[in-house]
Specification:
14 helices; 391 residues; single chain; 10 strands; elongated; alpha+beta
Length: 391
């Protein structure tokens, strides 16, 4: 039989029992829609995690001291010496942090002030929107300049580009005036609206405004060569700082790149779990399709016998029921995809699936329909024409 004849025959069989066809299509639509929605949520969450990690700008290694006593500190001067002594290190930058407030007009915000230098852009991935990061001259002379986030700029002045504006900073009980030299994409904004409201604003100012080069640094950011083994570099850093009592305390080295990779692996695992849950939902729907096709095979036993007696081949019977099952699941898949897209279009538009995901889901529903109809198709094709007509 021609494929077009089989197509119309399969379509006619589906229309003979509209209630059963509708219920089966509904179950497939629910399964397909659930899988599509879960996959969209998972991929959106993975994209948000990637954006958050990039915005936070963490990479490389961070070095700090635990149980620091009155002995030698992990100073900016020692950090520079460490950077020269360990060959795999490309760049180091000490960080000193203090809390305070920043004010412009009648608006005041709490903030964390991070002392940095001209190497800020080398050890952290910051997206500069306006102006520039700290220059070598500004860092060396300790000029009263600051790099702020775009959310803080919006809160203080109601606009993002505030380069050249003056803000009043209160640190250690004293007021100082700083000039904004750069605006970056806020690192805390990547945490989302609910979390970023609790997270403090991060403001970068010259290290010399917070501490001298001989004082203890809170952390040292280390950027390594691309081919460097970070675990080996960590060991060398610990060995260098503890050799002959260079520092007083326990040296801690954290692999920030490894932490980023771990978070990304967890995000991928969550997507996999989401897809498994959605796949189970679709499998339940396909069991319903399988039962429906087995029932249809039983009801059509006489017609199958007539077809075989008139010269139809067993492969034609197999194709008929496979095509019938595939059409049923394809119709349900399209309905489920359309429903989910409409709900998201008028609800959470950021979750709208892309064409690649949509095509993959629809193709999956079509393939699963063919798989669900495989057993009924094989059973129907094996019927003896005489026995089928007599039943």
């Amino acid at each position: 039989m021609r494929l077009v004849d089989l197509f119309w025959l399969a379509l006619g069989n589906l229309r003979e029992n509209p209630l059963r066809t509708g219920l089966c299509a509904l179950s497939v639509a629910v399964g397909t829609g659930a899988l599509l929605l879960i996959a969209s949520i998972g991929l959106f969450g993975k994209a948000q995690v990637d954006v958050t990690l990039q915005t936070l700008g963490v990479s490389g290694l961070t070095v700090y001291l635990d149980n620091h006593g009155s002995g030698n500190p992990l100073s900016a001067e020692l950090a520079d010496q460490m950077g020269q002594a360990v060959e795999e290190i490309e760049q180091v930058m000490p960080i000193k942090a203090k809390t305070g407030t920043i004010r412009a007009g009648y608006v005041s915000e709490n903030a964390v002030f991070l002392g940095a230098d001209e190497r800020l852009g080398d050890v952290m991935r910051l997206e500069v929107l306006f102006g520039s990061l700290l220059t070598e001259r500004q860092a060396a002379s300790g000029q009263p300049v600051a790099v702020v986030g775009d959310d803080l700029a919006q809160a203080l002045y109601g606009r993002t580009n505030i380069v050249g504006r003056t803000v009043r900073v209160r640190l250690d009980g004293a007021d100082q005036y700083f000039t904004v030299c750069g605006v970056v994409r806020a690192q805390t904004s990547a945490l989302g609206g609910a979390l970023s409201s609790f997270a403090p604003h991060l403001i970068y100012i010259p290290y010399a405004r917070l501490a001298s080069r001989q004082e203890n640094a809170d952390q040292v950011f280390v950027q390594c060569a691309a081919e460097a083994d970070l675990s080996h570099v960590s060991s060398r850093i610990s060995g260098y700082l503890t050799d002959r009592g260079k520092v007083d305390g326990t040296v801690r080295v954290q692999n920030m790149s490894g932490m980023v990779d771990a978070v990304e692996q967890m995000a991928n695992l969550c997507i996999l779990l989401f897809l498994v849950v959605g796949g189970i939902t679709l499998c339940v729907a396909l069991i319903g399709v399988l039962c429906s096709m087995l029932a249809a095979t039983h009801e059509k036993t006489g017609e199958i016998g007539v077809f075989l007696a008139l010269g139809a081949q067993p492969r034609d019977i197999r194709r008929l029921f496979l095509l019938q099952s595939a059409l049923l699941c394809a119709f349900g898949g399209v309905c489920g995809w359309g429903t989910v897209c409409l709900l998201l279009l008028f609800g959470v538009t950021v979750l709208l699936p892309g064409w690649t995901l949509s095509a993959a889901i629809l193709l999956l529903s079509l393939v699963c329909g063919a798989v669900a109809g495989l057993l009924p198709a094989i059973r129907a094709a094996r019927l003896d024409p005489i026995d089928a007509i007599l039943k």
